[in-house]
Structure formats: structure tokens, C-alpha cells
Amino acid sequence: MNSWNGSTGMSMFQLKTGRSPRLLPPLTPSDINALPDKSARTGIKPASVDSLTKDSLLASKVTQAFQANKSRGSPGKFKVGDLVMLTTVHRRRQYAQAGQNRIAK
Q: DSSP labels for 61-96?
């Protein structure tokens, strides 16, 4: 319930409710009339949590892309007229249906 996610920096409970869970119930009853008006706070807090989550996910996406691109080689530099080898392993499926283009296996 309260496990921390490395991408968002928050627990799932915090993302859903916008606050951390309470571990113990309050020992004294709270006076409901003494609480301040929370109507503005209830609208602003989820928006700030959502924007913080989006920023964290975008930052982790950029970091993951950077780390993944470290192991890739440089892209090949081809010119017009160069000969290249292409894999045709998935192209045989277009001839598998019955018809004029059918080939034997």
C-alpha cells in the first residue's frame, strides 16, 4: 500500500489520495466545526500532485532513453546507390495465403 515508486517519487496511495496514509487513528476526537474551509485546497492539491507526477515520469523517461542510447552504436551513413542487406524473415507471411503469389515451403 505504501511502497515508493522510483519513477514518480511517491507511493500509489499518495498519487490516488494526494496525502500520506495515517498509521494510527487520532486519539482525541477532532472538532468538525473548528476545521478551516478546504474547498480551495481540495482542488489545488490534486492538480499539483498530478503535475508533479507528470514531471517525474517525464524526467525518468528522459533518463531511461539516455541510458538506453548509451549502448547503441552510431547510425550507419548510407549514400544513394550503396548496397545493403535487408532481413526478409517477416516478408514470407504475405505469400502464405492461397493465390497467385503462393510459394512452396
A: HHHHHHHHHHTS-PPP---TT-------TTGGGGGS
Distance CA 103, CA 22 (A): 68
The pLDDT tens digits of the residues spanning 26-84 come to: 655 566 555 555 665 665 667 777 788 888 889 999 999 999 999 887 877 888 999 98
Domain parsing of the chain, residue ranges: 1-22+35-70
Q: In sequence order, what are the beta bridge partners of 4?
A: 11
Cell numbers for 35: 476545521
Q: How far is CA 62 from the centre of its chain?
A: 11
